[in-house]
């Protein structure tokens, strides 16, 4: 496995997930609900891909330090966690927009 490519895949998918969720929120503010639902679906798929890569890395490590921890790995883990938190909060905001529209 090319660790650097794998970590970059994690970062790219997590970033895409967050970006799509932000686009969904922007559309929710405008009341474009069909776009919101599609963007959230795409965001979820990107998040699943990111999580799959993360799970693969954890499996390779087996809790034994087999996968080297370097700055890019820490950055990737931070990126996925931030993306997950952003998506959760954005989904709540979108629900509020739906209720008030």
UniProtKB/TrEMBL annotation:
> What's the protein here called?
PTS lactose/cellobiose transporter subunit IIA
Q: Does the keyword Cytoplasm apply?
A: no
Question: Which positions carry the signal peptide feature in this UniProt record?
Answer: none
Q: Which residues carry this modification: Phosphohistidine?
A: 75
Pfam families referenced in this protein's UniProt entry, alphabetically = PTS_IIA
Q: Which UniProt keywords apply?
A: Phosphotransferase system, Sugar transport, Transferase, Transport
CDD domains, per database record: PTS_IIA_lac
Listed Gene3D superfamilies: Phosphotransferase system, lactose/cellobiose-type IIA subunit
Q: Which organism is it from?
A: Vibrio olivae
